[in-house]
Amino acid sequence: MPDTPLWSGEDQASRLAELTAETRDSRKELPLRRDVRYLGMLLGRVLEEQEGKAFLEIVERLRKLLIQHREQPSGKEEFHQRLMAQARELIGSLSVDDAYRVTKAFSIYFELTNLAETNHRKRRRRAARLNSDQNPVEGSLRGTLMRAREAGKPASEVLAALRKIKVVPVFTAHPTEVTRHTVLYKRRRISAALERLDQLPLAYGEASEDEAQILAEITSLWQSDEVRLKKPTVRDEIHMGLDYFPMVLFDTLPRLYQELEESLQEVYPAEECGKLPELLSFGSWIGGDRDGNPSVTSRSTQEALRMARYRIIEHYLGEIAILGGHLSVSTRRIRVLPALSDRLRYYDSRLGEEHSRWKRISEAEIYRCLLDYISARLRDSREAPGGTHAYGSAQEFEGDLLMIRESLMANRGQRLAELLLDPLLRKVRTFGFHLHT
To answer: Do residues 43 and 214 make contact, with C-beta atoms less than 8 angstroms apart?
Structure first.
């Protein structure tokens, strides 16, 4: 490994200027070019370590031939044909095993390039938010709202239009979707490392650590099977579809609404925008579509529904645990609404104090006590729907959360309510206890 990590060599003030460059500034593309170049260098290092220098030379020779072919100006057809003939000759000389390895090397290179481009789109979105005086990207939330305002549409009319919108992405177990989730997670970890490398000032040790992480992930990609070797069962397909919710959607959904709210406030600063409607819900065919697969039966559909319910309630339990970590509010310091105290007494009598650890530790931390009871009801809802202590519906669960929110809002806890309760309430209204339809 070289003494200096690749990403730490540049002047950091210059790098910061590149990351924050305006749309018209040509420097904005430099970080993307750097990432693509450095990722290619790291891949080359892995290929040499794993397969030897001779193999890397084959890959590099083929890559340079194809770059030459792409970059030659039109009108030089004879030269184009000669370059392609050389590439075909090189490929034709490979054994089947070597051809597979070369194909895999290029496949990983294109994956890494795609990750760099995705990271660059995130950069440009951040830069656009920094440079608020610039025209927003056409088609973005802010850009679309600005076009509406320029067309004379008030905020009330925009909100009326939003109330008519319902977007329902639907998951399907497409037979050609064979990429393994283990590969998807490797890509996500590389993406996370690329984002960290943009956090300036970047210390030598941080750059070295992230570069080592990327190298390890590329090595693992090279040594792993990139596709499933056995046809997935219906249950496997259900699992794969559900994995996208904790992987991406649970975190993304509240941020989407937050960005829309911020864009509305920015574009219509003098108007009362009001509460955003629910715009998004999800559907799935996995385990339920009758397209001729004999394994998809009524039992598999029931299983798909059960697994979806289990997944979303499991997520809510994690969110309630996080809430409990934050809401250490004590009645010795601040009041709560009487309705909240009444609800806690009701749960004390119905469930018993053994269900609330915080009731035994610090009875004054009333929100934590209530959250313990909410967790107990969620666990029953997950394990025994329709049971004595289970929630009868997601709306009943939402009612408990709303009571906590109202009590916080009424007792100088607005920041806690908006930061902690609002994102969870948005999820409950979107996913319910069913996750998707």
So the answer is: no
pTM of the model: 0.88
Q: Is the pLDDT of residue 399 over 80?
A: yes
How is residue 22 written in tokens?
Answer: 């305006």
Phi, psi angle pair for 133, to nearest 5°: -80, -15
At 283, phi and psi to the nearest 5? -130, 170
Average pLDDT over residues 255-260: 94
Q: Which of 171, 181, 172, 175 is nearest to 227 (CA)?
A: 181
d(CA 18, CA 349): 62
State the pairing for strand pair 283-284/170-171: parallel
The answer to whether 170 and 160 have CB atoms below 8 angstroms apart is: no
Query: Is residue 282 predicted with pLDDT exceeding 90?
Result: yes
Can you tell me the distance from the alpha carbon of 39 to that of 104, in angstroms, rounded to the nearest whole number?
15
Mean pLDDT of the chain: 91
For range 286-299, the mean pLDDT: 86
Q: How confident is the model at residue 176 (pLDDT cuts 50, 70, 90)?
A: very low
d(Cα 374, Cα 340) in Å, to the nearest integer?
13
Q: How far, in Å, CA of 13 to CA of 239, rounded?
A: 46
**CB 411 within 8 Å of CB 336:** yes
* Candidate from 127-141, 213-227, 258-272, 285-299 with smallest mean pLDDT: 127-141
Q: Which residue has the tokens 């340079």?
A: 64
Average confidence (pLDDT) over 152-165: 94
End-to-end Cα spacing for the chain: 51
Q: Are 38 and 6 in contact (CB under 8 A)?
A: yes
* Whether residue 165 has pLDDT greater than 50: yes
